[in-house]
Amino acid sequence: MTAAPPLARPNFWRDSHPNAVLSGLVAILIGWAGPNVLIYSVAQAAHLSDATAMSWLWGHAIFAGLAGIVLSLRTRMPILSTWSTPGIALLLTALPGIPFAQAIGAFLTSAVLVILLGTFRPLTRALGAIPPHLAAALNAAILLPFGFHAAQAFGQEPLLVGLMVLTYFLVRQWRPLWAVAGVLVVGVAASAGLGLWHPAPVAVALTAPQLVWPEFSLRATLNLALPLTLLAFTGQFVPGFGVLKVNGYEPAPGPVLRVCGLASAAAAFVGCHNLTLGALLANIVSGPEAHPDPARRYTAAVWAGVFNIAFGLFAGTFLHLLGILPVQALAALAGLALLAAIGSSLQAGFRDAPGSLAPALVVLVTLSGVTPLGIGAAFWGILAGLAVHALEVTGARRRAAQVPVVQTPAAQSPATQSPAVQPPPEASAPR
Fold this sequence. Notes:
This protein is mainly alpha-helical. The protein has one domain. The protein is built from 19 helices and 2 strands. It has a two-stranded antiparallel sheet with strand order 1-2. Helix 4 packs antiparallel against helix 14, helix 6 packs antiparallel against helix 12 and helix 9 runs parallel beside helix 16. It is globular. The two termini are 47 Å apart. Keywords: Membrane, Transmembrane, Transmembrane helix.
């Protein structure tokens, strides 16, 4: 027999693919068109300057991009890093009234807490023990609102969105990997042709980060650091690992938490809160559209990191460029880019556990948006699903134990066998 040829060592440039580049670009476009612009609402509520808001965006893009690149190259898995979107919602109400230097101290404290969570093995083991079908249901619940937004966009601009939807399904029949690219091209062209975009002068200029020295206070720790840590874990890391598991990737949680914590610590000095594991956007770089070969989809996440850094260097320029497109086009692009992930997650969530109500409960609770104790709905959704899953497993075992076992004559013990069929003592095997 001849020995098998050795496997080729991974090579980013050889492993990359045009669809990996496109998937990375689409993921970052959607991120910058969605949660990133919310930081201006936080800045306005806390009376922060535009320069501070730009520095916040700069810190997120640069350090999240670097964290995603490092993790993806190290693990050869498509790991995307982003900031905590639930954290932005918290800061909208919790940051006003707290001096920004103390907020930076709270951001830094939260980063250290995330690093410590990454060294707590029972916690990292619990993350890896979430049943795959519940992770799939959680992923579906996270993604479904983007499908709803695309449908609502069709109601507002039926011609624009209808052309994008038609393009997606037509190209998908011919070249599935190019469907999202076709949607992007048609969306831009149709927006221009229908007079729906808003062209404006765009200045090309680098964004300058602002270094802020942290101050620490008990008030900021209790009101910002602890809630931010909890939201990062429950709202980003838990669903983020679930997304990766659904797509066939299971990185060790500890190193991911530690790298994101270190990136968060660096970003805090320029005004940015927690950097975490991407959940929603991770579907774009980890699904079949990102690369035909699952082992090479890590390149899509690397490209996403590259684009994120480029966007961050010119944060103001790219925000103005995104403002040219109508919001309906961006909503349709996001919904169509995630449509395949929505379908596969729903199938995996309900197909792999027929008759179980746990996946349905995960979807319902997560979509409800409830936030008891200020904790995000995604955490309560997976917690409710795990509780029902445990009850169903316990009930199934109990019912199985109560089923009487009918023994055949051959399976009966010697004590119950008829004397006529017992072997004579001399024929018995020695003990």
